[in-house]
Specification:
- The protein is built from one helix and eight strands, in the order αββββββββ.
- It is mainly beta.
- The protein has one domain: AOC barrel-like.
- An eight-stranded antiparallel β-barrel has the order 1-2-3-4-5-6-7-8.
- Strand 7 and strand 8 form a beta hairpin.
- It starts with a helix and ends in a 6-residue tail after the last strand.
Length: 175
Amino acid sequence: MNTVRQRMYSKLLAGMLAFAVGAYADEATSVKGTFTAKYVKQEMVPIAPDQGTMMWLGEAQGSNRNTGRGSFMDGAKVVNRDVVDVVNGNGPHRGYATLSKDDGEVVVKWSGDVATMMAKDRPPLISFRGTWQYVSGTGKYQGIQGRGTYSGHFTSQTEYVADWIGQYTLPVAGR
């Protein structure tokens, strides 16, 4: 009798676990895109100017274009807020980006590195790369989870292009 009861409880527990995992562990969807942005706020703070050390806080705005399958955040408004800490144009940066569309919004936390190549006969070439992960979502993206990588470069002193790629999952109930 004890064995029958144990099997019954085991099956019940396994069924409940399968339901719980199935409701939140959907298959990952690959995504990629590119966005262009322009700084609308930028505050540069020299820390040790004679040694090339400076920080800056910024907010850039732009739009995203989906370059992968589907239409994930295609045409979304992008607001990117960042903190950069560099010595001679090289060092870490981090921040949060919000992508918004009519059907919802996602917030992404990212961090990486900035690299600057100086040259006498042209403006500095500034590039960046790193990793990102979803922090939250609203609307159709409620409960989003995922991560990926990004890279990009500046096209002027205040404008840049960022390419990103990754994966996300949504709770089944969120679709």
